[in-house]
Structure prediction request, 399 residues.
Amino acid sequence: MIIKPVIKGVVAKTAHPEGCKQAVQNQINFAKAENNIVDGAKKVLILGASSGFGLASRIALTFGGAEADTIGVSFERGPSEKGVGTAGWYNNIFFRQAAEQEGRIAKNFVGDAFSPQIRQQVADYIRDEFGGNVDLVVYSLATGVRPNPATGELWRSSLKTVGEPFSGQTINIEQNSLEDSVLEPASAADIAATEKVMGGEDWQEWIQLLLDENVLAPSAKTIAYSYIGPEATYPIYHQGTLGIAKKHLHATSDVLNKQLASIGGEAYVSVCKALVTKASVFIPAFSPYILCLFKVMKQHGLHEGCIEQMQRMYSQRLYNPTAVPVDEGRLIRVDDWELRTDVQAEVAKLMKELNAGNFTDIGDYQGYKQEFLELNGFALTGVDYAKATDMEALTLMQP
Ligand code: NAI
Prediction:
């Protein structure tokens, strides 16, 4: 079977397994070349390990100096009569193979991280087969829904403003166009549901379970990821539904930090750079900003992808040999280059010029689309896309 990219709006309907393998390998090569995480975690649980920041965390911690064994939890689909499966499914497989080749443990749990069954299976595995405990828990889930355990109903997150509506423009990757979009103001119920899905409650429940099960090592750390961005995007993100959920996540890190003090542990949130991931392409009206940001950061030689961000975060922040550097809100900042005054001044200037007719010239649409395709295993150098993929052989491979 020849696999081609099929894109609907901003969703990739296909993924190329060999390309995913190459994309994972490229990240591994970067981490190995850096090799600068000193005294990092050795036993790590990553929730949301199959793509974006979670996968990059796993690769950085395994190959970038710490030599960690990892457990990855993710929600992905394998090949079936319905399709070739998701990129994250293949990322799990090829990450595990590469890690095992170097003598590392890389256990994958594919299932719903919100379900009590998966949580218990993970805790049991840590206790019985992973050496008894973990010294780092990375919380990198990104999802639109979370089941309410009391009722079974789903909380659904919304990408909305709070207060006034916001008119902007959003990329349609399928059509290569920039389209008008309006973010509607959220209701109180929208805000509450988004906080349930993307806030800190589930992170806290995971840490509580791991504490109760006694599978956190003395001095264990936990970290979750957030975004703030520049003031120009506040109405869309920081002051919108997602931003409110992230503030809840930040507050949760303080609660967890106090709670973990009992075992000498710590909890942090790292505020990261805006990047193209499966989750972020959904954020309406965010595209003009990200296109201009990529253009300017590349011109300054400051552009980073997920692996560059995570390698820097672990080597210079969380495992900083002196102390974990944090801002006045106790947040780790690796959005520092994005928010540099000179970068933001140039981004603001470009955003004034950018429109539906010129966005491919003014902004870095080519780079944006390239990163999107690579996320799904397409457009990678070194992959022969004319070669047929043996789906039967792939079906036999398990994460
Ligand atoms: P992503 O979509 O690439 O990865 C999400 C991960 O969560 C995947 O491994 C997926 O399988 C897993 N997942 C989703 N629902 C699950 C479930 N029910 N059970 C188990 N696993 C599940 O997302 P991305 O962008 O890496 O996001 C991770 C975190 O980083 C989020 O908190 C996001 O807000 C944050 N972040 C993202 C930025 C960006 O620009 N992409 C910027 C700053 C922070």
Q: What stands out?
A: The first helix runs from residue 17 to 34. The chain has one domain: 11-159+184-284+305-336+387-395. The mean pLDDT is 96. The CA atoms of residues 175 and 268 lie 39 Å apart.
